[in-house]
Specification:
13 helices, six-stranded antiparallel β-sheet, Alpha-Beta Plaits, 2 domains
Length: 455
Amino acid sequence: MKKIAIGGGQGFWGDSPDAAIHMIRNADIQYMGCDYLAELTLSIMAKQQLKDPSKGFAPDFQTRILKEAGKEAWQKNIRICTNAGGMNVTGCVDGIKNWAEGEDMKGYKIGYVLGDNIKDKIPQLLADGWTFPNFDYDGNFEDIVDKIYNCNVYIGHEGIEGCLEQGADVVITGRAADSALFLAPLKYEFGWAADDWDNLARGIMVGHMLECGGQGAGGNFMYDWRSVPRMDELGFPIAEVTEDTLEVTKAPDCGGLISEQSVKEQFLYEVHDPANYWTPDVDVDISQATITQVGDNRVRVGGIKGKKRPDTLKLCVGYHKGWKTVSMLSFAWPDAYEKAQYCAEVIMKKMQRRGMKADDIHISYIGLNSLHLGVADMSEEALKNLNECVLRIAVFSEDKSECAKIIPEISPLQLNGPPGASFFGGRSHVQEVMALWPTTVPRDVVQVESRILTV
C-alpha cells in the first residue's frame, strides 16, 4: 500500500531550523512543509519591501534550512513546500537559484506560485460594491484604504500542486493557507479528485497538525510539559498517510512527544467550530474524529470528514493604525506593587499637566496582572509577597507626537519617585502600530499561477 510521509519543518518566521535539518538527515520522508507566515507577518514584510525592494520574504529558509540540508534533501528526493516567499516570491526564488547554482545543483527545479497579492484589485472590488466586512469588529473599509500595506488572499493547494506536477523540487508561495502546503503533495501523490471532500479534509488536517512545528510534538504542551523529553532537541511531527490511514509520529533520535494529548492540543488549535473548520480547499468536520495511541510516539487519527469548500476566500489586509510607546520601570520587595502603582499615578498626573491626548492607555504590572488581566489574583497576600514587579505603561495614539510625550518622564523616577525603582533597556521609542483587517473576497477574484525555474 502506498504511503507518503511528510514532515512539518517550521512553525513561524524565526523558528529554529534544527528539527527540519534533523528530519531531512534522519527521517524517512518524501515531503516537508515549512510555514513562515502569521497574520501580520506579511505587513512586516511589505514594510521591509517598501524600504528595500529586494526584501519582503523570509530569508531564513535559504540561509538556515537550505544552506544546511537543502542539497541533501534534493539528493534524497525530499520535496519541500513553503510560504517563505511572503510579499516577494520572486525575490525568494532568486536567492534560492543563487544558492543552488553555488552548490552546483544543475537541474534543480524551483516552483513558485503567484496570485495571492490582490492589492491592485481593491479599487475595482470597491467599485463593484464589495464591502470587505470585518470578521472581528464593525468598521468602514474605505476608512483604511489609503493606509494599506498589503492585501493577501489565503490561497489553497492548486498552485502548489501545479508546481509539483511540473517536477518542482521546492515550491515557494506567498500567502498560501498553512495547511495547503501539506494537502498539495498528498492530493498530487494519491490523485484525489477536486471534490473528494473527505480525503481533502484528511489532507488539510495533516497540515493542521504539522503547520505549527514543535507545537505539534510536545512544544507549548499545556497538558504536561514536564513529561516532554529532551526539549532542547525537540523534534517536529511527521504524518504518514495511506489511502486508508493517517498516523502522526516524529523522526528517530530526537526529543519531543507524540501522544494523544499532544496531538489533541494541536488538532483543536484555532478551530472555532469543529463541525465547520473552513479552509480555502474544504470545509472540514472533525466533530466525530478519533485520536488513538497506537505505539511509542505514534498516534492514529481517523473520522475526519469534509464538505464543499466555501465560495469566498479569506483576505488579510494589513494597514497603518497609529503609533505606540511602551515604557517600563521595575520595583523590588518590599511593597513592590504599591510602589509601582504609585509611580503610575505620578506619571499620569504629569501627562495630564502636559496635555497628552492618547487614544488608549494601558497600565499593567508584569509579575502580577499583565497576562491574566481581570482574573489575576489581586488579594492582599498576593500583593504583599511579590518579590518584584514591573510597571508597564503602553500609550496608543494616531498622533505620533502624543506618544512621545511620556518618554522623558520615565527614567527620572529612579530618583524622583518611591525607593527601589530600576530603569532598564534604555529609553523607549515611538513605534508604528500595524493592524489587521480580516475579511473575505469572492473566489473568482484570485488568479493563481504556477511557474517553474530550472537551475
